[in-house]
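Practice problem: Glycosyltransferase RgtA/B/C/D-like domain-containing protein
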Amino acid sequence: MKKKEIVVLCAIVLLAFALRLYKISRPIGDWHSWRQADTAAVARNFIEEGYNPFIPKYDDMSSQANGLDNPERYRFVEFPIYNSIIAVVWSQTGVSNTAARLVTVFITLASTVALYFLVRHFSGPLTATLAAFFFATLPYNVFYSSTVLPGPLMVFGLLGLYLSFVKWQDNENNWLPFLLSVIFANLAILTWPIAIFFTLPLVYLSYQKYGLNFIKKPQLWLFAFLSFIPFFAWRIWMIRFPEGIPNWHFLLNEGNIRFKGAFFRWLIAERMGKLILTAAGFALFIIGLVAKRAKKENLFYLSCLFSLIIYFVVFASGNIRHDYYQVPAVPILAIFMAKGILTLFDPKNLFINKNVAKILAIILVVLTYAFGFYEVRGYYWINKPQIIEAGQAVDKLLPKDATVIAPYNGDAAFLYQTNRYGYPITDRPLEKFIDQGTKYLVSVDVADSGIQSLVKNCKVIAKTNSYVIIEMFKECIGK
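Answer key — structure tokens:
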């Protein structure tokens, strides 16, 4: 690797770091705060209750996840590797939003480097530089790589997996890249099981090296066994805690949306063409998609893209509901954008003037970032800052062992701010809450008629124009 390449890569990493410092200390009340709060709560409870990754717990005691009461607050989704990393950092820094977000930032910086070396292997340093640049700077990815979500760690695991697997295939007698491949595969799959969809490129690389005989290679079967058995063990263990397993079947094809017009509109027009790449970046992606492939690239990038398409199709409603589900798409989209730029700067096979092509490339890049930041800027906003103020008041005024009702349409971000366990939704009569030991309610909807009735008849611990904290008794309810 030449000195010039090192300098350029370091500059990209430093730029990526600087961009992610934008509002890095924001509370967990921004876009997709519900998922961030659940993730952060598991890490915080590792600190406060003792570390046990096999029984992760968050703050939500309600039945909203799957219809079952969850008084023990079990949270069984992905294996809590990401939460554990945050807990280790918090053990040194104290519980801190900034520290948690910086964990994701540094993971993404590592992903940027891994993507560079992966693309460099297949396409050379120039394509690698542009791909790493787009990955590091697309506004969508800048935001999501400063959130408290496990997706960026899965992306790092996948990129590390591809890179180490390629090195192993180049020298199958070297067991170090084999072991690294197993480690990265487990990291990706355990962090977010959708990583399984993105193992298809490994099948392609194996076929490319061995032909159909790859299915007879014992080392590949050993790799597959070691990569998947921890995931299956975790899923078997989870069955013991059904109340802690959220319902996920709706993520597949809720409303039979798969292949309908809305499916294509949301994924292509709204997500790819507006949010992630914007119309300009999507044009670069298409140019890169139809551009000539280098001999070493062969079909590797297309196998990655095909994996992404399969994932979109299987988790159709999940990808329509949640825009963070497209985080795994960013590396492959960045690669094709890089190829699109290079095609425009050397348009030998395009019926277009060379200088016009270069100007068009620059305009498309500028518009990509202008439109992209316009779409993403609102994601950083705290949608309801009153929940931060109210949560701090609860943490100051109520007993540490109190459980609270902090209704926020099921979003646990409000409950997370209180630093208490409880309920982010009123999923049962208030009398039943009291019978079960929860008598405190905090609300930021102070003008609501039901809240006004409680204020009038129950004990008010604190009340401002922004929030109210109430201690409830059966005698004061329903008056």
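Discussion: The CA atoms of residues 179 and 391 lie 46 Å apart. Students who identified this feature from the tokens alone can consider the problem solved.
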